[in-house]
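Schema walkthrough. Field components (list of strings):
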Amino acid sequence: MFTYSLMAGVLFGLYFTLIGLGLNLVFGVMRIVNLAHGDFLMLGAFLAFWLFTLFAVNPVPAVAIAFVAFVIVGLPLYYLLVPRLLRAKDPEMLSFILFFGLSQVIEAVTTIAFGTSERSIPGDQLGRAIAAVAGVFVGHKVETGPVELLGQTFPAAWVASGIVSGFAVLLVYLYLYRTRLGYLTRAVMDNRDEAIATGIDVHRISAVAFGIGLGLAAAAGVFAPFMLGSITPAMGAEVTVTSFAVIVIGSLGNPLGTVLGGVIYGISYMFMQSYYSSWANLLPYVLLIAILLVRPSGLLGRRVRRA
Amino acid sequence: MIRLSVFAALLASITTAGARAADAPAEIKLGTLYASSGRYASISMPVHDGLKLWIDQKNAEGGVYVKAFDKKIPIKLVAYDDQSSTATAATLYNQLITQDKVDILVADSGSVLTSVAVPIARDHKMFLIDQTGTGANFFTADNPYVALMADPISSIWPKPLADFLTHDGPGLGIKRIAMLYATNDFTGTQATAVRKFIKESNSGVELVFDEGVPTETSNYTVLLNNIRASNPDAVLHLGYASNDIAFLRNVQDSGIKFKFLFSIYPGIETELLEKNVGNKALNYVFTYVTSMDIAYKNEFGMSLKEYSDAWHKKYADSHVEFGFNSIAGYTTGLVLEKGLATADSLEQLELRKAIFSLSGKLKTLDGTFELDANGGQIGELTPLGQFIAGEDDHLKLVTVWPHELANGKLVYPRP
Amino acid sequence: MPRFVRHLLLILLPVVVIFAILPGIYSNHLLLFNFIIFMTLAQGINVIYGFTGYLPFGYVGFFGAGAYGFSLMALHLHTPPLVALPVGAAAAVALALLLTPLFRLAGAYFSIANLAAALALLQVVSNPNLENITKGPYGISLSGVFNPTLSYATALAILALTLGLVIYLRNSHFGMALKAIREDPISAGMAGINVVRERIIAWLLSALIAGFAGGVFAWNVSVFYPETVFNVEFTIFAIVFALFGGNATVTGPILGVVILYGIYNAVGISTPQYFQLLYGLLIMGLVLFLPNGLVSLLQRWGIDVP
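Field assembly_structure (string):
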């Protein structure tokens, strides 16, 4: 029971790392609280659902499609909303409310368009993809179904999302630390005003970061039907708060921190489910508050503005 | 003397009949709420559409027959959207009573949205027609202003399941039971009831795993592992539709095969579960058999087939699923119809009396309508059944308990 | 006549009188009651956000604490409602005291932590293991306490006291100190204002307001589930109403509630399916185009709004 919870926690946590990655980027770069993050995840999930139902597209390529689609959506959305927002007296607080409004709009439009019933993608789709990939490596046909790791079996979806998550973290890390755009992004994350002073086009950088953030949320959303049961237009809200807990535990602005945050969250959640199941949902909030009070800059410590 | 009193009675009835027909209202105002969005929309819309179907049908016939005025009076539906918010619902219920001055007050679907109506109806002395709110604490001896129409109260609902486990279970080798439930009023109360029934039965059956999880829980992989570790002969999962979907998918994804698996919503919202979970995962699953799958001999109102045809004709383009909840809305209408045809006036307590008088006697497509003294529904119980796939992979729901209604053999343990 | 008294007569008196008379004319008393509750909550937000710049995104936590404090007293100790009410409010203040360490955090962190605290409290209260105390997820049912008339009158009294408090803040040194802290805490500190102490007082006051509102709400409705009184909608509405009207004024939140909540109920009744969409767009438009509220328009034209 203990080992299983531990390993399940790591895998489950990696999924939340994927979810938190986009949020981390957006908050780190713009200091904007995207309360609609969970809703973009939901939109990614619906995109995957419709791609599968209408065009029989397997979820794995749907991840890439969702990512690209929402990067493209994010860019104009940024320019539409953020520059005006930043002109107000208190943009950080107002961003809460603005993006809350956005989340309501997204939810409303999705509900009107698709109705409120639960939707899902058959569980074996991811299993097939993994089997196909594994078959390439191993050389012979691999069976679909649950995957065995260190003697314990886990649903194929968990392993798939763990792999994709690790991949995404790697990509974000490479982006931030190995590309010029990423280098400029880190400058903006560090100190926005100084970045403007040195002539960096902060809006362009932020727009790209925002787009990537949304893209990552949508990509994570593709796994939602497998990790979170089923998808409905209203599923976003809960995911948003949990992902905040994850990024805060790690530390803001550092993608590796989100990995740590996700894994810690995942393991604790699984242990709670095993031993104190009815209290399990209390966990993310308690973790969030505890970290903020004890070590506000997160476990991997970056400087945080103090009041 | 007798003749005089007979004459007087006749005279009285004629004059009052004339007076009654004279001051009959032009329409009967029926007020209700529905949730078009939010977490209760999926249980609310089918119920609402079912009620609307009944209303439209009656109005097409010229109205519903009201004994108090001895004529058919059309029904005017006054319905507001509470968006699954209890605060909004409370204000809107009040609006229906105080501004729209409805003659009949019908609650929205589910315990949560009904709960706010209970004190409001009581305060304004309106008889609340509770459609599917099964919370047992709505029905207390000191409040006559509520009655449950179409679902049994949560503390009685699992009786068929518990009875099967305690009577037939030991004979099949079922001794160890694992129960996982979502902690909310609907399923938490059912879990408590199951626990109670098992304890009182003294049949040697025991709960080896008994855990509650929050209703928002959406993944059960670790819990399933722990359930499996407790080595159960039977596993019961009591949760809402989204919990069932996640649970059954996780069971399938982990490759675990429990000897006996019960969950609520495969029976109550079969179409929804089939779409989300798939036939393979539902095979051999035990569930409640609702009036969707048992053609109860209806002595009043449409039969299941007739209703289904009427529904699919009327709502051909709708997103709303046809299921047990759609029947619930229609059943409410039937009870109202019979009630109005029995009540001597439109007074709220008179309506109550008329509806209570139907207890044990009204048989509709939903089963036998039966109320306990406080207005809780103890009839319309849902038997226990099992999904068994035929050669064409199509799932057939076989009723296995009670024996009088059984129409097939169950498969235990699952292969 | 001192400004304080003038404002009292100009604002507090008409509002209280109108809401005292309305039940006689308009029979949906619950709607009127909700107006009063939201006006109280919007002023509570005003006290903490308008005057100190901290946005408590978990404001509903105090509301719920007040509701449960009241209910537990009435349920277990059978205290009369008017005695249980201050206990409920005290519970909210106790929660606020517990959360004061959050003030070390800046801006968004504070808000998120506050939100987490409110959600955590909801989880604790609705846990079935605590069923014997809080009735867990099965909800509270207070029979014998139900009294719509008296609870309405009490709510009105609470609103009056709240308005009085805000008028006082608007016209006092304390209020000015708070606004100074909001604009620039460092300079305020250098000017001799005890930043930490003043902020905490404002925080406790706003929690007190929400606690009373929650308690009287529980009294009025007397049957509720945990999610009803910990519904994030209360926070959102209170914030949006306060923002729409305008912060750090007395009339701003009142205007915000009357206009927006009025529209909410009118639209909610007539075109519900597009309702969430319209409200979401409204909130976005508000933040983008009128972030300082309606009264800022008036202030721009030179009118000094109380």
